[in-house]
């Protein structure tokens, strides 16, 4: 359009269009180079408004300048979203009306027939309304999709009963921690914890009471671990603790603290006071040991702890 205006000797219009092109490029540059999307969109949007005011004021080529104002609604709404975009459009419409209806003896501007001015405003408002409706629906659909994404992500990563990480996430964390281990030569230990005679809790108080016990245990475990540790629901009444920068010896101290905390904790469910105990198997990662191998070690220790009478911890070097 700038080149066309140049060929038709509309030098001022051509210069304005070249300036606008440069400003849009500047907006693009700010976005690309400085990742400042807010600033670049403000540059694009408000320079577009200025160009529109200029085209309506001067008439552009043969008084067709006002026909470009329809692009304002979609650009405003896509840049500033539903609410702010609507405010921008309202302010823009008011200024356009002022420019077109201002008496030409006050400011000399392009003269349009009254029918044209009114129809331009009506059609602009109709396009703005339809664009707003579209933007609202799109925004609503996007929010719903993000909500669903968040919900399914949560379902995929967390156990819905206890809100702890599930087995898959625990395995991923173990893989991650194991890779740190080979790089930093740090120690890493795990605890596998199983509720003792949990079937009895279900049989005696009901399945819902069993669920309440698991929820309370998860809370208690979370309170006992350090920031760098992780506790996950490994299976039915089994939990896995991942303890980075921790030797088996220190893991045993942590395990004993947790075991004793559970032993002395009374879980109130409806009118029942439920007391439970846990057994734990401890294993430390050796440099070239695989994850399954270490889990196997911890599992064997857990069985041993159960065999020795439950409510105890057992480390692999005590086998
Ligand atoms: N309420 C409830 N029970 C569960 C859940 N997952 C597993 N269980 C129950 O946990 C019980 C585990 O029983 P067992 O494997 O026999 O073990 P235990 O009774 O804990 O005995 P030991 O492990 O040998 O001390 C079973 O009755 C399962 O139904 C759950 O999410 N909620």
Descriptive notes:
It comes from Thalassotalea castellviae. InterPro entries: Diguanylate_Cyclase, GGDEF_dom, Nucleotide_cyclase, Rev_trsase/Diguanyl_cyclase. Pfam families: GGDEF. Its EC number is 2.7.7.65. 64% of the residues lie in helices and 12% in strands. It is an alpha+beta fold and 319 residues long. It has 2 domains: 2-154; 167-318, 2-Layer Sandwich (Alpha-Beta Plaits). Strand 4 and strand 5 (272-275) form a beta hairpin. The chain is elongated, with a radius of gyration of 34 Å. Residues 161, 194-199, 202, 207, 210-211, 214, 236-237, 306, 310 line the site of guanosine-5'-triphosphate.
Record the SSE blueprint.
Layout (H helix, E strand, L loop, with lengths): L1 H6 L3 H24 L2 H22 L13 H30 L12 H44 L9 H18 L3 E8 L2 H8 L1 H18 L5 E4 L4 E7 L3 H16 L2 E4 L2 E4 L2 E7 L6 H17 L5 E3 L4
Parallel strand pairs: 6-7
Antiparallel strand pairs: 1-3, 1-6, 2-3, 4-5
Guanosine-5'-triphosphate binds next to strand 1, helix 7 and helix 8.
Name its key features.
single chain; 319 residues; alpha+beta; Alpha-Beta Plaits; 2 domains; 5-stranded mixed sheet; two-stranded antiparallel sheet; binds guanosine-5'-triphosphate; transferase
Mean pLDDT equals 92
Low-confidence segments: none
Cα separation of the termini: 84 Å
Largest sheet data: 5 strands, mixed
Count of alpha and pi helical runs: 10
Global Rg: 34 Å
What percentage of amino acids are in beta strands? 5-15%
Q: Tell how many strands the DSSP assignment holds.
A: 7
Provide a concise account of the structure shown.
With 319 residues, the chain is of the alpha+beta class. It contains ten helices and seven strands. It has two domains: 2-154; 167-318, Reverse transcriptase/Diguanylate cyclase domain (Alpha-Beta Plaits).
